[in-house]
Amino acid sequence: MIQSSELILNPDGSIYHLNLLPDHISDTILTVGDPGRVAQVSRHFDSIEFETTHREFVTHVGYYRGKRFTVLSTGMGTDNIDIVMNEARCAGEHRLHVAHGAPRSRAAQVAHHPAGHQRQPAGRRAHWHHAGHRARRGPRQPHAVLPLMETGLETEIATELQQSLGLPFAPYVVRGDDLLREQVGAGMVMGNTLTCPGFYGPQGRSLRLDLRQPDYIARLQNFRHQSAEGLFRLSNFEMETAGYYSLGRLLGHEVLSLNAIVANRATGEFAENAGAIVDAMIERTLQRL
Ligand SMILES: O=P(O)(O)O[C@H]1O[C@H](CO)[C@@H](O)[C@H]1O
Ligand SMILES: O=c1cc[nH]c(=O)[nH]1
């Protein structure tokens, strides 16, 4: 029995922040950061059966070519991903209990629009599969160390990243879902996303304040880890993927982060047709799911 202070329901029975009832959680969930982008996805649907808005969480539920999707905005940052993954899971689990008598895994897909600092033209589509930021130091509270079960390779990369960037913590390094990548990623560029707890300093931008490490971007660009699986390099910045991949692994969901590259940090360019790039990625993703 979970106490009402832990699993908080609104008077209509919907879950606290997302404002969703069990039936609003489809087997496949598409998440976007920008609340305005939910309609950019659902305008492709054949029908929309439900819409709601609560804070930055906008949800549309509908059908695309006969398949039911929930499309949901998260707002920016991994703190919101904690809310979305926990609340969508709890609401969805309840639906599955009612429908099937037992919970089972759902696939959750993620569409984001981050910035690449790799040397490729702004505007190129990409799809990335590693990410991370986890504080492993600090006060030892019971929840400070997650039982994430990183693979050997993930731990190796995390340790080397920590050393080479001089970080006071080891980042998470978590691989996305291989099957979803095969299903959705054909023809897209594969890469490794660095999830940052901010857009400016944490992504090496300096507008009014100097960076503590002036060579931060160069250090990230030059990072290499060679293993039997191939060469690991960092590809792009965004602000949520690590949260999805870590919580997806812990909760047992298939998760893939798709990133439209709109800002090229190596050349200093922002794509002129960013909206069209994002739209093309949305359509391609829907067609493949
Ligand atoms: O456009 P969305 O999907 O929000 O994604 C990216 O854009 C936001 C920053 O501008 C961050 O959320 C980042 O992850
Ligand atoms: O540069 C960018 C662009 C979008 N989102 C990010 O997190 N960074």
UniProtKB/TrEMBL annotation:
Q: Which organism is it from?
A: Hymenobacter humi
**Which InterPro entries did the record assign?**
Nucleoside_phosphorylase_d, Nucleoside_phosphorylase_sf
Where does the record place Basic residues bias?
Answer: 122-140
Q: Which residues form the Nucleoside phosphorylase domain?
A: 29-93
Pfam families given in the database record = PNP_UDP_1 (PF01048)
| Source superkingdom | Bacteria
Q: Give the catalytic activity.
A: uridine + phosphate = alpha-D-ribose 1-phosphate + uracil
The protein's name in its UniProt record: Uridine phosphorylase
